[in-house]
Design goal:
Blueprint lengths: L1 H10 L1 H16 L9 H21 L3 H14 L3 H21 L6 H45 L3 E4 L2 E7 L4 H17 L4 E8 L5 H16 L3 E5 L3 H10 L8 E2 L2 H11 L7 H16 L2
Parallel strand pairs: 2-3, 3-4, 4-5
Antiparallel strand pairs: 1-2
Helix pairs in contact: 2-3, 2-5, 3-4, 4-6, 5-6, 7-8
InterPro entries: Bact_StressResp_Reg, Globin/Proto, RsbRA_N, STAS_dom, STAS_dom_sf
Keywords: Phosphoprotein
GO molecular function, one term: heme binding
Length: 289
């Protein structure tokens, strides 16, 4: 009986697809797909229903299922799109098979439902598993990318590097900051490192502790750490918490910290215009003007 129903569904796939597309389009205005262009929605739906029928014909089609799951993730569509689509397919297929049959008693209806379920349920599991696996892989790659960007060490000139920090600092990120800081100081042969916390929204005891540890580690390998971006509210918080930041220099802005870094490395910022004026005056004095 199952093969008979499957044959009916496959031979009349055009009619079932038409019914399925109609119901899917009726859901568009009221759910997560409302903002999607009609062209993209149409093409994706046709690809989806082709995946369904290919799976039914071949009793599973791992490659097409995997490819479609990856596409949905790349489009940013939720898993509910797949679930809704398969539920609608189940409903319209059952309705179509029943509409083509003269015998419509409870036993026949039960056998139709059971047969359609045997096609759809494995596909649901397969699509959900592929979607979940692809999503976990995507999230893992994004996590790695974010980690690489979460604690960058930027060499701005010889012997001076800057580490700009943005966002919340937790224990895992603090460990990454420490590793990048020490590796970067050695790699770039830095004498001075500026840790910029302008973009850190909250500095509590734990955050301050991690920063102090990082600065102390930098000091132990022969470099100086300057903490910059100390806003008034952060300064007040640090004082109220009784945190001692006296072991290394602190500045309110990156500009001030950079000037200090230049002084530590025996350099300074020179006003070129003033220097030119002084040279002109010196030349004039030598000429006796």
């Amino acid at each position: 009986m199952d093969e008979k129903f499957k044959k009916v569904a496959i031979e009349n796939s055009d009619s079932i697809v038409k019914m399925w597309m109609g119901e899917i389009h009726s859901l568009k205005d009221g759910n997560y797909t409302s903002s999607i262009s009609d062209e993209l929605f149409e093409s994706t739906n046709r690809e989806f229903v082709n995946v369904i029928f290919t799976s039914i014909k071949n009793a599973g089609s791992p490659k097409s299922v995997e490819s479609f799951s990856e596409k949905i993730i790349n489009l940013g569509w939720p898993l509910s799109y797949i679930i809704d689509g398969l539920q609608v397919f189940r409903r319209v297929t059952v309705d179509y098979i029943l509409s083509q049959s003269e015998q419509v008693d409870s036993a026949f209806i039960s056998s139709v439902l059971r047969s359609v379920d045997t096609w759809v349920e494995p596909l649901i599991r397969q699509l959900v598993n592929e979607y979940s696996g692809s999503w976990e892989n995507t999230v893992s790659l994004q996590r790695v990318a974010l980690q690489e960007l979460s604690a960058p060490l930027i060499p701005v000139m010889e012997s001076i590097t800057i580490m700009p920090l943005i966002g919340t600092i937790d224990t895992e990120r603090a460990k990454l900051i420490m590793e990048n800081l020490l590796d970067g100081v050695i790699k770039h042969n830095s004498e001075v490192v500026l840790i910029d916390i302008t973009g850190v929204p909250v500095v509590d005891t734990m955050v301050a502790h991690h920063i102090i540890q990082a600065a102390e580690a930098v000091r132990l390998i022969g470099s100086t750490c300057i903490l910059v971006g100390i806003r008034p509210e952060i300064a007040q918080t640090i004082v109220n918490l009784g945190i001692d930041l006296g072991k290394f220099p602190t500045k309110s802005s990156l500009k001030k910290g950079f000037r200090t870094a230049l002084e530590i490395t025996n350099r300074q910022v020179v006003d070129i215009e003033s220097k030119e004026d002084n040279m002109e005056q010196m030349i004039k004095s030598l000429k006796g003007e």
